Amino acid sequence: MYLKILTPIVLFLALNSCGGKEEKKVKVEKYKVDKIEQIIGIARIEPAGKISPLGAESAGKIVQIHVQEGQMVKKGTLLLTLDQSVDAAQIQQSDARLATRQQRVKSLEAKIAAIELKISLADTERKRDRRLADAQAGTQKAAFDSESIYNNLRADLAIAKADLAEAQAAIGEVQTERNYAQKLLDKKNIYAPADGMVLNWDVKMGQAVGIGSKLADFAPKGDLIATTEVDELFAMKVKKGQRVQINIQGTKEKLSSGTVVYCAPFLSKKSIFNDRADNLEDRRVREVRVRIDQPDAVLIGSRVECIISL
Questions:
Q1: Which helix (H) or strand (E) element contains residue 120?
Q2: At 279, is the pLDDT very low, low, confident or very high (cuts 50, 70, 90)?
């Protein structure tokens, strides 16, 4: 009996003690943006002039790649050559036609010179026969025949000059065709658009490419930029000229330092690091670009950590 009465009492006391225990209150301090001294963001290293893809302006098979990946080149350096055999054959054909047209022009010019000489002699004879006929020392028929010969020669001269004009126009036409074929051939050569570096080739020797096909990535010579983003909550605190420390992502190891050189005048809705088109995140960010002080310490395309000192 004693045990039966004691057990409920013990249980009642235990439950009462548990239910009456008060939890310790944690003091929460209000977060103040004005007291922030640093902003940390993930950045991507890229050239100040941006990486540009090199494309093919003409279709063809790659016959030679002249530079290697990572090689520095000057503007106008020949980078890649496509098969030019068909275009070269068209140029040779145009050259042959051009030589024929030029020869015809020379022949017509000689013909015109001969006709002009005959006209000069015929004019002299025409005038002499007319004087003789007027003085009744010669016949009217002789004078008429001399006039006819002179007029016929003038007609032949007009025809020869028309033929010459046509032949010269044909030369211009063939020259235009040759120039067009030469431009097509030149498009089979891919040149460096500026001083810079070929980062990587997307094609191989012997590969056939179409018009507009991407051939390589090209980085123009110049400063390296770390492109990062700042959340809209802190967007107005970032200014040009602020100093930045560049670290290996996720560590405290310093790679370089830098300076903020650009702050976007607007907020973007989507992160530059987001590769998914279906991401509906509506948080906005401000793009910030940092010029790297020691470009040799970082690699183009790598991700680093930017610590912006406010």
A1: helix 85-134
A2: low
